[in-house]
Amino acid sequence: MNSLYRRDRISLEMIYRGLYHFYVAHQKGLVSDPVKYFAAPENKDLGIVKRQRKPNVKLIVAPFPDKQLGSDQFFFQPSSKIPLTTAIQA
Question: Per the domain annotation, does 14 fall within a domain?
Answer without folding.
Answer: yes
